[in-house]
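Supplementary notes for students who missed Thursday's class. We covered one full example, reproduced here. Read the sequence, then the structure, then the short commentary at the end.
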Amino acid sequence: MNKWVVSGISLLGVLCLAASMAKQRTYFRLQYPASWPEPSYDFNHNPLSKEGVALGRQLFYDPILSRDSTVSCASCHLSYTAFTHVDHELSHGIEDRIGTRNSPALMNLAWGKSFMWDGAANHLDMQALAPIAAETEMDSDIATVVERLQSKPKYRQLFFQAFDDSTITGEHLLKAIAQFQLTFVSADSKYDQVKRGESGVAFSEQEQKGYRLYQTHCASCHQEPLFTNQEFANNGLPMDTFLQDHGRMNITLDPADDRKFKVPTLRNLKFSHPYMHDGRFAKLSQVLNHYAKGIESSATLAPELAQGIALSPNEKVDLIAFLLTLNDQAFVFNRDLAYPR
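Structure (token representation):
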């Protein structure tokens, strides 16, 4: 609602109009396969609405969130690359400052229990605070962002439509971004179509062999159907001597968490390279070579990797063939998730 319209009517009129607009808000349930587990996210706390998601989408793509208005969430999380970046190993922030990690791909966040490579955020509604404040990312603060948004009539209108309040708050800002991110559901890959028993869709012989290899060697950490167990693990990557990133231990200060990072999903790997928390691998073949002969033993190494994963050249090709069935073009090229025009 435009502020000059409100000022021209009575208080009773404002209340009646607000109540009317609240009734018009379009709420909806998140759509996902019936065979999937229930989401971890509590939608009673922040129910999805068409208006809330639309606001979150505007915010996600708006560089106004950064100190110099040059970097948006989408700067590191591009919709057409499974909501990550692919042109460099480490994320870039304002003034081309270089971060310390590769930006994680974003999808199926409603099932997440913690967020970012080290789990620094334990709730999706709070996650956006980290990049907004990070010196190497947006280098701003929530109070400054709210003040800027409050000065924009467009945003006052959008916040009123989404939350019945044109006075913008940090809580509503974060909830709106979360609502948009909750709609990042990837569930229409070839793998998903096979699992649904769609007519005419089946794994090739090579893909079926790769599926069996995945079930033998990968499924304990990358569990179906989300292809992550939402946990943290040390996968034997030698530590980068420059970055010296201790992963989860940076948050918990527990030596048992040293070099543990969030287990990423295997979905949409075609679009989300480079791989690992520091983007060190450009190709899936390099990832498999690491697990075959590059694992560095340490006290916190995942026990499943103690002996490595020995695969023949043909088996590596078969496994990659299966992993490619997890690519979901309908998700990656979904116009409802792209830049709002």
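Commentary. The first strand starts at residue 232 and ends at 233. Residues 195 and 202 are 9 Å apart (CA to CA). If anything here is unclear, bring it to office hours.
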